[in-house]
Amino acid sequence: MSDIFRQIEKELLMLQSHSFPQIVAGFTTKHGGVSKGAFATFNLGLHVGDDPSFVCSNRQRLADLLQFPLERWICCDQIHDVHIEKVTTDHGGKGTTDYQSAIAGTDGLYTEEARLLLALCFADCVPLYFMAPKHGMIGLAHAGWKGTVKNIAGEMVRLWHECEQIPLEDIYVVIGPSIGACCYIVDDRVITRVDRVLEGEEKLPYKQVSIGQYALDLKELNKVLLIKAGIHEEHIDVSGYCTSCADHLFFSHRRDQGKTGRMMAFIGRKEE
Ligand SMILES: [Zn+2]
What we know:
Blueprint: E1 5-9, E2 12-15, E3 23-28, H1 52-66, E4 73-74, E5 84-86, E6 108-111, E7 117-122, E8 126-132, E9 137-143, H2 145-149, H3 152-163, E10 172-175, E11 185-186, H4 188-198, E12 206-210, E13 213-216, H5 218-228, E14 236-238, E15 263-269
Parallel strand pairs: 4-7, 5-6, 10-14
Antiparallel strand pairs: 1-2, 2-3, 3-15, 6-9, 7-15, 8-9, 8-10, 11-13, 12-13
The structure holds zinc ion (ZN).
């Protein structure tokens, strides 16, 4: 399967961004770690009930693979909301070996500093990778259905445009591996919120499958919201991977009925 994410190690899919060679971005698989049982083997979430020493060992493995030491990673306490934090070297190491020091109540990060790795945990939710190479800016957001309908995608664009004065045409976004419409059935409660954020948009990212049941394409919904926020459509790439279908590669919260590990999405920038 050809995809903007390519598996380069058993542990790792890397974003293939030939136009931005200084950017290191990717998404982990469930393989190559030391965790056991439901977390076997490469669980990178500290908050899911796994043995923290296994998670730290897995994180160290990823740090070695990427050559980004843990002191340069930044992790958050993700709450399915839309708060986004601008981070600097001072935040380096937060949440990387203990959950208590993670940046509280935050589902998005961005930075203009090099050699920092923004790192968020996923098991079906949508990872959104933001890049404005001309401005040295990178960002990462966690968009499950709640973060998506609260429009965390649009919030990142707003912050970069209004607070950082980055022209919209300089922003690129990649929508990473997440649960696909093939495996994601939601009810009216979710679809009401989707309709509200779409504000009468014609192209709907869901299809009714039975009474009160809909197959929702969260990746496509984020893409529509990014375009509404002013991102050029040709600056948005979407991964085809479904975390639920690709059982051989990924943990899936829905497929594994809640008790499962977490993949990590990450983005950093090497020194020029
Ligand atoms: Zn699927």
